[in-house]
Amino acid sequence: MRRPTCRAGADEVAADMADPGKAEGAQRGVPLLLPGPPMSLLLVGLGLLMLAGQAAALIEGLYCGRQVCYDVLGVSRDASKADIARAYRQLARKYHPDRYRPGEQSEEASEKFILVATAYETLKDEDTRKDYDYMLDHPEEHYRHYYHYYSRRLAPKVDVRLVVLVTVCAISLFQFYSWWSSYNDAINYLATVPKYRIQAAEIARQQGLLNKAKEKGKSRRSKEEIRQEEEEIIKDIIKNKIDIKGGYQKPQIYDILFFQIILFPYYLFKYISWYVWWIYTFNIKREEYGETEKLYLIRKNMKMSEAQFDSLEDHRKEKFLEQQLWIRENFEVYRQEQEEEMKQKLASDPRWKRYRRWMKNEGPGRLTFVDD
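RE: above sequence
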């Protein structure tokens, strides 16, 4: 609409002055039509803009799709949880597929029922409802809406910390049971070795344990019961007198995974303190190594774990100390000697000779015909 010029406005004022009735009507309160759009058109325009912004916020595949979840349930955005639940129950009873016979009407009711259930799932949770309201108010942040929707949808229903705790406890129980089984197998094996069995039986006789078993056998005890009791006494002597090391050593509860995780800060602090002490004592002060430190360096040179090194016999460790294997040069000489000795043993071993002859003549990948 073109705005009237100043000349047109002056002519209208002159016409009003020429017509006293018209001027009088204007003075009585009759509104004058001023130039510009009416107020009703402005309100309609603002409403259309709000609807357009809300429609732009609705994304297909998120929440209720192109429909507003509040409109699906027939509630306002200020509705409480009770109102939302009440509206959902009413609509669920109305559109439940079991109320309709198979056909087009049943399919339409099923689709509406799914939409109602989706709207209820969206609005019943405070966090999901907050994200949905934010999407309606900020339609331009598409990536944020996708992220929050799928992060909540794909998030695990169970607390991850609880899952980790249960897993660690299960692994710890299995670990402890496995160690006890290995330890009992080692005790049962040592009880069959004559060397350890004779020593254990001699200790039991000196302590009078076997004599007590025989005395008990006189009072209504069979020979099998006496033998089993003597066997248990020998095994107990082996457990208490023999220090089993390595993978078959007696399990400690602090060695399982659960306590290892709990005590990890303590172990870390202990290792850092030990490492600082090592640097200060042997690198800065230049002090000589003790026997414990020498054995530690030997174990590191041999690339053996603490359990493997502890399982070695004491005379072998003494031999390592005599050869001064904590010195890197001496250890390299020792390693070469061991390799040469192993080669000589293999060269003189008849089984190794047969294996080398088989590899040379036939080998695992060679095709041959069998002679009749």
